[in-house]
């Protein structure tokens, strides 16, 4: 077991390197500090991220910048209604050798990389979307009965347009649960938009530079898992996840008839990892309850569904999560 002082030194060195990475990202992706923080927390936790926002808000550019800064081999798939699973995974082709013999050869698809950008993932049919299920969960794919490992590390950063836009398909619940976080990308503030105009319409364009390498990112992910988590934070994670499950004895009053279903154990696992990553990104040695409160919405939103009655009332998942957090913090204050 490493000494506590060695762990502290490792965390401080990694925090310094993450500061450099954020500075490099900010050269191209201006503003949106929370979005950058959540995406980096997702990668430090070894997970996948779903970026949700209207077209033109820089989601694709952010993923492209991340591949450079984190030193990862990247691929991009533009999801369209006619995209097929083989376009993602690859396929076998029959080749004829000079001697006339024939044999099948596997041609790798774009999923064989370290950072996969799934652009506008909800433009493709559910059949094609589901081609990523095994890759995201097991870091391997099975094609023609052969298990083929993917890159290490392997991350999917998918972009999605709001579901109310025409020509989109909702992602299956099983696939949504495999995304560590749903990260909402909103319109920039006026000052941020002004900075974007000045930085992107001039003669020179800012360029990101590599800060990490693939093996360094893997080491950082291992370090995140070694960070201590206090009992108070663990209990808060359990309280939050269980309070969002309708029908449970520990369910919050706010979810009584508002939710059709709530988050499973994978949500608690995601919170345990991401609160550590957030603390690290902010230069702290251990997570706090505030980290749990800050990450509740991006970790839980895509793992819950409103009931029919709640949709009829005009309720939102963000509102339900806020009500649950208010109820939990109220209990803590009363205790």
Describe the overall structure.
The chain is α/β, with parallel strands linked by helices and 335 residues long. It folds into two domains: 1-226, 3-Layer(aba) Sandwich (Rossmann fold); 228-335, Magnesium chelatase subunit I, C-Terminal domain (Helicase, Ruva Protein, domain 3). 47% of the residues lie in helices and 15% in strands. The protein contains 14 helices and eleven strands. Strands 2-5-8-1-9 form a five-stranded parallel β-sheet. A two-stranded antiparallel ribbon has the order 3-4. A hairpin with a 5-residue loop joins strand 3 (90-96) and strand 4 (102-108). Helix 1 (4-28) packs across helix 3, helix 10 crosses helix 11 (265-281) and helix 12 (289-300) runs antiparallel to helix 14. The radius of gyration is 21 Å and the shape is globular. The two termini are 37 Å apart. The mean pLDDT is 87.
Protein topology:
Blueprint: H1 4-28, H2 33-44, E1 49-52, H3 59-69, E2 74-78, H4 85-89, E3 90-96, E4 102-108, E5 115-119, H5 126-129, H6 133-138, E6 140-143, E7 146-149, E8 155-160, H7 173-176, E9 181-184, H8 190-200, H9 214-226, H10 231-243, E10 259-261, H11 265-281, H12 289-300, E11 305-306, H13 308-313, H14 317-334
Helix pairs in contact: 1-3, 1-9, 2-11, 10-11, 10-12, 11-12, 12-14
Q: Mean pLDDT, nearest integer?
A: 87
Structural class: alpha/beta
CATH homology-level superfamily of the largest domain: P-loop containing nucleotide triphosphate hydrolases
| Biggest sheet: strand arrangement | 2-5-8-1-9
Number of strands: 11
Protein name: AAA family ATPase
Family: Belongs to the MoxR family.
GO molecular function, one term: ATP binding
Organism: Phaeovulum veldkampii DSM 11550
């Amino acid at each position: 077991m490493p000494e506590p002082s060695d762990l502290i030194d490792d965390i401080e060195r990694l925090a310094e390197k993450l500061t450099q990475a954020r500075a490099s990202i900010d050269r191209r992706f201006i503003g949106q500090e929370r979005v950058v923080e959540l995406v980096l927390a997702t990668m430090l936790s070894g997970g996948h991220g779903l970026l949700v926002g209207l077209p033109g808000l820089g989601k694709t550019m952010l993923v492209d910048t991340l591949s450079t800064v984190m030193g990862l081999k990247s691929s991009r798939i533009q999801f369209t209604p006619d995209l097929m699973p083989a376009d993602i995974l690859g396929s076998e082709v029959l080749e004829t050798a000079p001697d006339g013999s024939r044999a099948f050869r596997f041609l790798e698809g774009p999923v064989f990389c370290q950072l996969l950008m799934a652009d506008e993932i909800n433009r493709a049919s559910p059949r094609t979307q589901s081609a990523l299920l095994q890759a995201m969960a097991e870091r391997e794919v099975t094609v023609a009965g052969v298990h083929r490992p993917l890159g290490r590390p392997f991350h999917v950063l998918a972009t999605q347009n709001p579901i109310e836009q025409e020509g989109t398909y909702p992602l299956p619940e099983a696939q949504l649960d495999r995304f560590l976080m749903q990260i909402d990308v909103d319109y920039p503030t006026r000052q941020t938009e002004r900075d974007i105009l000045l930085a992107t319409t001039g003669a020179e364009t800012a360029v990101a530079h590599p800060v990490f390498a693939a093996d360094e990112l893997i080491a950082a992910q291992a370090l995140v898992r070694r960070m201590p988590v206090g009992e108070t934070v663990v209990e808060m994670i359990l309280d939050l996840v269980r309070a969002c499950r309708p029908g449970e004895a520990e369910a919050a009053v706010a979810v009584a008839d508002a939710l059709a279903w709530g988050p499973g154990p994978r949500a608690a696992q995601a919170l345990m990892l991401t609160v550590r990553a957030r603390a690290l990104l902010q230069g702290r040695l251990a997570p706090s309850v505030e980290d749990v409160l800050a990450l509740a919405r991006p970790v839980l939103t895509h793992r819950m569904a409103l009931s029919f009655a709640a949709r009829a009332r005009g309720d939102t998942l963000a509102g339900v999560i806020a009500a649950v957090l208010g109820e939990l913090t109220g209990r803590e204050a009363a205790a």
